[in-house]
């Protein structure tokens, strides 16, 4: 059950952020493990059942995308799910986490935002315990390893270390090209190799920035009824 004060959070998931659209060979094993984690039913009778997954990596490697993909996969599995970010949660009461243990898959993004918040760390620790008691799954992301998060609550560090721990590695330039071309194709757009490489060389190489640029180009292309070419990119993004 999601409490009323959660309804103001950004809980709507992007419909194009799935495992299929996460184009990264270097992180394929992470995707496979996440898929297995959320798709395998935990058994209360098994003492070695893993209920938690900690995913870490630098900004821009696609951790939020993977959380959204997990929720999309859970939906396909006819499981309930929720994806929330500590960047928003930290401004609310810790009671916002109450009742989440009734959801099959809980995804919490960017735990580094509560590194200095003792009450929030205790609340997440308590949630982790309730999740295991109710036979559910919890995935948490951060920008650093558990040891480097600077969490002040030893019990929470311990809980994060109990489950799966995986690092999301940065995408290569070739993988970023494939990713933005795939996302463009999903929108019904054609990005040639030349155009995609121009985007990569002239804009920020962070995937979030590239996808924001793609969104602007998509809207401008519809509005002006023009194909996405290098001159068009210059007019829309670089003029």
Secondary structure: elements and pairs:
Layout: H1 28-39, E1 52-56, H2 63-76, E2 81-85, H3 86-89, E3 105-109, H4 118-133, E4 137-142, H5 154-162, E5 164-167, H6 173-186, H7 193-202, H8 207-224, H9 230-237
Parallel strand pairs: 1-4, 1-5, 2-3, 3-4
Entry keywords:
alpha/beta, 9 helices, 239 residues, Helicase, Ruva Protein, domain 3, 5 strands, Rossmann fold, disordered N terminus
What does this structure look like?
It is a single chain. This protein is of the alpha/beta class and 239 residues long. The chain folds into 2 domains: 164 residues, P-loop containing nucleotide triphosphate hydrolases (Rossmann fold), CATH 3.40.50; 65 residues, Helicase, Ruva Protein, domain 3. Helix content is 44%, strand content 10%. It contains 9 helices and 5 strands. A 5-stranded parallel β-sheet has the order 2-3-4-1-5, sandwiched between helices. Helix 4 links the parallel strand 3 and strand 4. Helix 1 runs parallel beside helix 2, helix 6 packs across helix 7 and helix 8 packs across helix 9. The relative contact order is 0.15. The N terminus is likely disordered.
């Amino acid at each position: 059950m999601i409490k009323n004060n959660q309804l103001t959070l950004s809980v709507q998931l992007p419909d194009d952020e799935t495992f299929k659209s996460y184009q990264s060979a270097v992180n394929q094993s992470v995707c496979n493990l996440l898929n297995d984690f959320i798709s395998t039913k935990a058994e209360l009778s098994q003492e070695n059942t893993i209920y938690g997954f900690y995913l870490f990596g630098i900004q821009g490697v696609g951790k939020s995308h993977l959380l959204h993909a997990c929720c999309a996969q859970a939906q396909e599995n006819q499981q309930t799910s929720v994806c929330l970010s500590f960047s928003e949660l930290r401004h609310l009461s810790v009671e916002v986490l109450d009742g989440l243990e009734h959801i099959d898959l809980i995804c919490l993004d960017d735990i580094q935002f509560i590194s200095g918040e003792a009450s929030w760390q205790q609340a997440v620790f308590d949630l982790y315990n309730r999740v295991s008691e109710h036979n559910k799954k919890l995935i948490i992301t951060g920008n650093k390893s558990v040891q480097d998060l600077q969490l002040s609550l030893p019990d929470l560090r311990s809980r994060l270390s109990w489950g799966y721990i995986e690092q999301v590695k940065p995408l290569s330039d070739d993988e970023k090209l494939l990713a933005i071309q795939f996302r463009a194709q999903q929108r019904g757009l054609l990005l040639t190799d030349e155009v995609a490489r121009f985007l990569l060389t002239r804009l920020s190489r962070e995937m979030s920035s590239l996808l924001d640029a793609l969104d602007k180009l998509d809207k401008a292309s519809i509005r002006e009824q023009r194909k996405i070419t290098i001159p068009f990119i210059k007019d829309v993004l670089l003029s």
